[in-house]
Amino acid sequence: MSKIFYIIGTILIISVGIFMFQTITDNNQIIPRKVLFGNPDKARVSLTHDGKYILYVAPKDGVLNIWLAPSDDISKAEAITHDKGRGIWSYTKAYNNKNILYTQDFNGDENDRIYSYNIETKETKLLTPAKGVKAKIAGASHKKPNEILIYLNERNPEYFDIYKLNLDTLEKELIYKNDRFTDYVTDENLNLRFGSLLDKDGAVEYYELKDGEPKLFTKISMEDSFNTSILGFDASGETLYMLEGRNRNTSALKAITLATGSEEILAEDTKADIGLFTVHPTKQTPQAVSIDYDRVSYKILDKDIEDDIKYLQSIDRGDLIINSRTLDDKTWIVAYMADNTPVKYYKYDRANKKAEFLFTNRKELEQYNLAKMIPIIIKSRDGLDLVSYITFPNDVKLDKNNIPDRKVPLILNVHGGPWVRDSWGYNPEHQWLANRGYAVLSINYRGSTGFGKDFLNAGNLEYAGKMHTDLIDGVNWAIKNNIVDSDKVCIMGGSYGGYATLVGLTMTPDVFACGIDVVGMSNLLTHVQSKAPYMTPLLSIYKTRIGPWDTEEEKEFLRQRSPINFVDNIKKPLFIAQGVHDVRVVQAESEQIVNSMQAKHIPVVYALYKDEGHGFAKAGNRISYYALAEQFLAKVLKGRAEHIGDDLKNANLILNDKEKISGTEAEKIIDTAVGN
């Protein structure tokens, strides 16, 4: 059930966090940026399948690497990788209990190569040496412990062929030559069972791949495609699990017995899509699901783990995350995610119903008092419920309706995607901004996932339209509730959130006092036409959800939603940050609007990171960005700020065409841009 393992791996990413255990300092003491945004002490914690070793990601010489320790003595941990660049953020454990697999790209270009570390020989080998090729680990199974499936787009950059790779001999066998499918579904015998593709209208078609010619199994319309998908199989390969959103609004978990075609709904909710929480490690049967509307709840499907979940939920108020389960299911690694306490990791002994505390993720942060995140529902102007989250500075007192005793500047922090969502829990940007004296508001605007297909599809063709008015409605809610004065609101975000920032300053210029755009697109026409080759099959999604561009009329529709065409309207300070190697929102998207602003003598702060892609993987670059952003906000909104100091020292950065600048020089550039 490889798709289920992928989902669990995605959930595991959330566990990168921090926890408070030591004596708390002053309620309003400034939290250093390096404490909030430096590399975590430990993250991505799991056990090998036999439970013999514990693995995690942690810094080595300032760069994230993979560490390995005997599970009964973490003090003996040793780094098994020695990266000195962007770091290693994740790994996959082979079922032979010998090989630890991981991928690395070059400076964020996303052309990943697969490496394998052998626990017994302590040797590391490059499994996919071809350069300019994207490799992905596609599947692993306890039934085939010495084999994995991998994807490679070496033959055809637009599509991935699938190979079976033997971890002992390192020989790879082509098992499917592909010029059609964008993804696959495999079973626990590592057999290819389905291939999926997107048609020209954005619908997803699944084809059975047995007995020669692919045979259509099911077709999912574009409207249903984001909350309907095949997850995988149980261990027998006879039961198929799906998230089913057809003929309903929110997705349900469904089981299909392939021999008879009989179907059973295992879990559903009227307000939120079902998420898969955990599966049995060998049977591959779903045992619990999560339901995340404004807060996460769980539904147990298998009574075998009911007592375990009840016990684990009694330990901490945070949301429970199951990071890892051994193959014999005797030992788990679990984590707890809360809003104002960092994540805590425990090793859980099922037989004795005992959870042993392991560590926190950022020990230095334990001494600081963190702010609470409050779930709220904001009504859009056309009646939609916008699940949102707001965080206030600790020195702001709230009444029973969570209305503050005084107004504070507000940061509208817009999530990227846009087809993802914000959730309750520890958020370092919320903590940073609240600590500096700002309220922080995150809105799940229409088009966000998790709230059913009606809410998702309400965002179709609404870039700079109703997706943006949802954000404006959130600002108006905050003003109406005496949270902020109308001239003290800033908008910021990354990717789609960066685009929303540019829309805010070009199309609704009177709403915001300033904006911070990280890797946001400025020109929808050039954005949709500048994708990496392997993203080409996905363009039908962009045509149906952002807008087509085949006719002149369609192109004009996108032009009217592109900030590059409204640069003259910018009258508030703007800070833009971009990675040179970004393949999702290419450098030209930022360069276009920066060049246009400079040609029109409109001030802008532009930070270009020479060794980053779609975001900031290197700690030095990440800390430098937040140092610049903090100064920018302080100059405009008058919040608290540390001086930039030496926070640019370890950044590979060009700031307004200047390299190797000091903190003092950077502050002068920001002063000029904001008009101080």
Architecture overview:
With 676 residues, this protein is α+β, with helices and mostly antiparallel strands. The chain has four domains: 2-366, Methylamine Dehydrogenase, Chain H (7 Propeller), CATH 2.130.10.120; 371-486, Rossmann fold (3-Layer(aba) Sandwich); 516-521 and 562-676, Rossmann fold, CATH 3.40.50; 524-561, no CATH class. It is built from 13 helices and 37 strands. The strands form eight sheets. It has a ten-stranded mixed β-sheet, with helices on both faces. A four-stranded antiparallel β-sheet has the order 1-2-3-4, with no helix packed on it. Helix 12 crosses helix 13. The radius of gyration is 25 Å and the shape is globular.
Domains, number: 4
* Rg estimate, integer Å: 25 Å
Which residue ranges are poorly predicted, with pLDDT under 50 across at least 5 consecutive positions?
Answer: 2-24
Q: From the helix content, strand content and strand pairing, which structural class follows? A: alpha+beta
| CATH architecture descriptor text of the largest domain | 7 Propeller
**What is the CATH class of the largest domain?**
Mainly Beta
Could you give the distance between the termini? 58 Å
CATH fold name of the largest domain, please? Methylamine Dehydrogenase, Chain H
What share of residues is helical? 10-25%
User: What's the arrangement of strands in the largest beta sheet?
Assistant: 28-29-31-30-32-33-34-35-36-37
Q: What's the pLDDT, averaged over the residues?
A: 94
Count of alpha and pi helical runs: 13
CATH superfamily of the largest domain: Prolyl oligopeptidase, N-terminal domain
What best-fitting shape do the alpha-carbon axes yield?
globular
- Bin the strand percentage: 25-35%
